[in-house]
Specification:
The structure holds two protein chains of two kinds. Chain A is α/β, with parallel strands linked by helices. Chain A contains ten helices and eight strands. Chain A has two domains: 92 residues; 120 residues, Histidine kinase-like ATPase, C-terminal domain (Heat Shock Protein 90, 2-Layer Sandwich), CATH 3.30.565.10. Chain A is 40% helix and 21% strand. In chain B, 38% of the residues lie in helices and 36% in strands. In chain B, α1 links the parallel β2 and β3. The chains are: A alpha/beta, B alpha/beta.
């Protein structure tokens, strides 16, 4: 009996024919099922299944935040060549998420990815809390200030909060902003977990704070929650390192 | 995030539970309105059942403090634990809002 594939492609709510074409182009086998594809033939930890998310997949997603799944790619309006690029990135990465901004804004991606990391690395309660908070803050920044290009809250008032909420609603309902991508690239090394959050906004530079504003604490929290972080690609990529 | 308000003679006690993040901005606006409109001066936010707060949640607590201060009302945070206590400490919120054990 042939050994199971090291990496395979799967989908939720995606046309079978297009999936087969993409799998062939990516030189990956299709994943059949847990019983047929993995159990009894190999350690599930050694198999990796990349999931393409097509239509009406959100109800089924919860069942995939576990072995053997390692990548979750929301297809949305992506062309095949773009999907293949993301598949290649996913193959090279321990855990990989690529969602649209509107989906990333709606979901608790930090909690979901931490549940997967926790299955693959032994994390203390504090380590898990630190990683979740830093990832949550990084994703919030990437969504709100990166892809949606929203300015920080302009004052300490309910009116300012309402203006920000209205601006958010305006941007998230504009497909030009809502369909921008948020990528989470997570590599599980022997002694560290490295998580990069990538957006498609205008970039960002850290500015010194001068007064107690309602916003601007996200990087303080990231700074104390990880061992080190770097802003790359003009601020569109935040790379965080956590010791394990 | 969910909250329940218990208004007594001298103070309003707000018990907050769940996760406080930017997604709760509409609820926070409603809570600030309730705290602004009730008759008592001391507004106490009991955080014992709050499991998670992020930087946006901290920002919204500062807005609550500012709005209540404009009405000459006191805003006090109480019984934060775990992740919430740590985030309040890192954000140095104690310099801006009264925090009680």
């Amino acid at each position: 009996m042939a050994p199971p594939p090291a990496v395979a492609l799967h989908s939720l709510g995606f046309p079978a024919e297009r999936l087969a074409d993409l799998a062939a182009a990516a030189h990956l086998p299709l994943w059949r099922s847990e019983t047929d594809g993995i159990n009894g033939r190999a350690d599930p930890l050694s198999s990796r299944v990349l999931v393409l998310l097509g239509h009406a997949w959100e109800d089924q997603l919860a069942g995939t935040w576990t072995h053997p799944y390692t990548a979750w790619i929301e297809v949305a309006a992506l062309a095949d060549h773009s999907i293949l690029e993301l598949i290649q990135r996913a193959v090279e990465t321990s855990l990989y998420i690529s969602f649209t901004t509107i989906t990333a804004n709606r979901r608790d991606l930090a909690g979901e990815l931490l549940s997967v990391i926790g299955q693959r690395r032994t994390l203390s309660h504090d380590s898990r809390d630190n990683m979740e908070l830093a990832l949550h803050e990084a994703l919030s920044n990437a969504v709100l200030h990166g892809n949606l290009q929203l300015e920080s809250l302009s004052g300490l008032s309910v009116e300012a909060l309402e203006r920000f909420s209205n601006d958010l609603t305006g941007r998230i309902t504009d497909p030009d902003f809502a369909n921008r991508r948020i990528d989470v690239i997570c590599n599980l090394d022997v002694d560290a977990v490295i998580i990069d959050v990538v957006d498609q906004g205008k970039g960002f530079f850290l500015k010194p704070k001068t007064e107690p504003l309602a916003s601007g604490r996200g990087f303080d929290l990231i700074g104390v929650s990880c061992q080190s972080f770097q802003l790359l690609d003009g601020g569109r990529r935040l790379s965080m390192r956590f010791p394990v | 995030m969910d909250y329940a308000i218990d208004i007594k003679e001298q103070e309003a006690l707000v018990r907050m539970s769940g996760r406080l993040t930017f997604n709760d901005h509409a609820k926070l606006r409603a809570l600030i309105k309730e705290m602004s409109q009730n008759a008592v001066k001391r507004q106490i936010l009991d955080l014992a059942s709050l499991e998670f707060v992020d930087s946006a949640g901290i920002g919204m607590l500062l807005i609550a403090r500012e709005e209540l201060s404009n009405l000459d009302k006191q805003f006090i945070l109480r019984k934060a634990g775990g992740q919430v206590k740590r985030v309040l400490t890192v954000a140095q919120l104690g310099k801006l809002i009264t925090i009680e054990e």
